[in-house]
UniProtKB/TrEMBL annotation:
GO terms for cellular component: cell tip; Golgi to plasma membrane transport vesicle. This is GDP/GTP exchange factor Sec2 N-terminal domain-containing protein. InterPro entries: RAB3IL/RAB3IP/Sec2, Sec2_N. SUPFAM superfamilies: Sec2 N-terminal region. It comes from Phycomyces blakesleeanus (strain ATCC 8743b / DSM 1359 / FGSC 10004 / NBRC 33097 / NRRL 1555). Keywords: Coiled coil. Residues 3-116 form the GDP/GTP exchange factor Sec2 N-terminal domain. Pfam families: Sec2p. The keyword Coiled coil applies. One of its GO terms (molecular function) is guanyl-nucleotide exchange factor activity.
Amino acid sequence: MTIRELSTAANDLSQSVQVKSQELTALRSDMAKLNEKYIGQVDKVIELQLAKDAVESELEELSRKLFEEANGMVANEKREKHKIEVAYEHLRKQLTETQERLSTEELQLNELRTMM
Protein backbone atom coordinates (compact mmCIF):
# COMPACT_ATOMS: atom_id res chain seq x y z
CA MET A 1 0.00 0.00 0.00
CA THR A 2 1.06 3.45 -0.78
CA ILE A 3 1.16 6.38 1.57
CA ARG A 4 -1.79 7.89 -0.19
CA GLU A 5 -3.84 4.72 0.26
CA LEU A 6 -2.78 4.50 3.88
CA SER A 7 -3.66 8.14 4.42
CA THR A 8 -7.06 7.62 2.80
CA ALA A 9 -7.64 4.52 4.89
CA ALA A 10 -6.61 6.43 8.01
CA ASN A 11 -8.98 9.27 7.13
CA ASP A 12 -11.78 6.78 6.49
CA LEU A 13 -11.09 5.12 9.81
CA SER A 14 -10.94 8.50 11.56
CA GLN A 15 -14.30 9.49 10.08
CA SER A 16 -15.71 6.10 10.99
CA VAL A 17 -14.44 6.54 14.56
CA GLN A 18 -16.02 10.01 14.71
CA VAL A 19 -19.35 8.65 13.42
CA LYS A 20 -19.22 5.77 15.89
CA SER A 21 -18.28 8.20 18.66
CA GLN A 22 -21.27 10.41 17.78
CA GLU A 23 -23.53 7.36 17.65
CA LEU A 24 -22.20 6.27 21.04
CA THR A 25 -22.85 9.73 22.48
CA ALA A 26 -26.39 9.70 21.05
CA LEU A 27 -26.99 6.21 22.46
CA ARG A 28 -25.71 7.30 25.88
CA SER A 29 -28.02 10.32 25.75
CA ASP A 30 -30.96 8.11 24.77
CA MET A 31 -30.04 5.68 27.52
CA ALA A 32 -29.95 8.49 30.10
CA LYS A 33 -33.39 9.69 28.94
CA LEU A 34 -34.78 6.16 29.10
CA ASN A 35 -33.28 5.72 32.56
CA GLU A 36 -35.01 8.93 33.72
CA LYS A 37 -38.32 7.68 32.30
CA TYR A 38 -37.75 4.32 33.99
CA ILE A 39 -37.10 6.01 37.33
CA GLY A 40 -40.24 8.11 36.84
CA GLN A 41 -42.28 5.00 36.09
CA VAL A 42 -40.85 3.21 39.12
CA ASP A 43 -41.83 6.20 41.28
CA LYS A 44 -45.36 6.10 39.82
CA VAL A 45 -45.61 2.36 40.45
CA ILE A 46 -44.50 2.87 44.06
CA GLU A 47 -47.03 5.68 44.48
CA LEU A 48 -49.81 3.56 42.99
CA GLN A 49 -48.86 0.59 45.18
CA LEU A 50 -49.00 2.79 48.28
CA ALA A 51 -52.41 4.13 47.22
CA LYS A 52 -53.63 0.58 46.53
CA ASP A 53 -52.39 -0.58 49.93
CA ALA A 54 -54.15 2.36 51.61
CA VAL A 55 -57.42 1.58 49.80
CA GLU A 56 -57.17 -2.13 50.67
CA SER A 57 -56.48 -1.26 54.31
CA GLU A 58 -59.47 1.09 54.40
CA LEU A 59 -61.64 -1.56 52.74
CA GLU A 60 -60.60 -4.13 55.35
CA GLU A 61 -61.37 -1.67 58.16
CA LEU A 62 -64.76 -0.80 56.69
CA SER A 63 -65.58 -4.49 56.20
CA ARG A 64 -64.60 -5.24 59.81
CA LYS A 65 -66.77 -2.38 61.09
CA LEU A 66 -69.66 -3.49 58.88
CA PHE A 67 -69.53 -7.05 60.21
CA GLU A 68 -69.24 -5.79 63.80
CA GLU A 69 -72.25 -3.55 63.30
CA ALA A 70 -74.23 -6.34 61.62
CA ASN A 71 -73.37 -8.74 64.45
CA GLY A 72 -74.43 -6.10 66.97
CA MET A 73 -77.72 -5.59 65.15
CA VAL A 74 -78.37 -9.34 65.09
CA ALA A 75 -77.62 -9.57 68.83
CA ASN A 76 -79.96 -6.64 69.54
CA GLU A 77 -82.71 -8.23 67.49
CA LYS A 78 -82.32 -11.50 69.39
CA ARG A 79 -82.56 -9.65 72.72
CA GLU A 80 -85.64 -7.75 71.57
CA LYS A 81 -87.25 -10.93 70.27
CA HIS A 82 -86.59 -12.64 73.59
CA LYS A 83 -88.13 -9.70 75.50
CA ILE A 84 -91.20 -9.79 73.25
CA GLU A 85 -91.54 -13.56 73.65
CA VAL A 86 -91.31 -13.24 77.45
CA ALA A 87 -93.89 -10.43 77.45
CA TYR A 88 -96.13 -12.43 75.11
CA GLU A 89 -95.93 -15.50 77.35
CA HIS A 90 -96.71 -13.38 80.42
CA LEU A 91 -99.72 -11.79 78.69
CA ARG A 92 -100.90 -15.19 77.45
CA LYS A 93 -100.84 -16.54 81.00
CA GLN A 94 -102.69 -13.48 82.25
CA LEU A 95 -105.30 -13.94 79.53
CA THR A 96 -105.72 -17.61 80.42
CA GLU A 97 -106.09 -16.76 84.13
CA THR A 98 -108.56 -13.98 83.33
CA GLN A 99 -110.59 -16.30 81.10
CA GLU A 100 -110.64 -18.93 83.84
CA ARG A 101 -111.79 -16.36 86.42
CA LEU A 102 -114.42 -15.08 84.02
CA SER A 103 -115.63 -18.62 83.46
CA THR A 104 -115.77 -19.20 87.22
CA GLU A 105 -117.59 -15.91 87.76
CA GLU A 106 -120.09 -16.78 85.03
CA LEU A 107 -120.74 -20.15 86.67
CA GLN A 108 -121.27 -18.49 90.03
CA LEU A 109 -123.54 -15.91 88.42
CA ASN A 110 -125.59 -18.65 86.76
CA GLU A 111 -125.86 -20.51 90.08
CA LEU A 112 -127.02 -17.36 91.80
CA ARG A 113 -129.60 -16.76 89.10
CA THR A 114 -130.94 -20.28 89.43
CA MET A 115 -131.19 -19.85 93.20
CA MET A 116 -133.16 -16.68 92.91
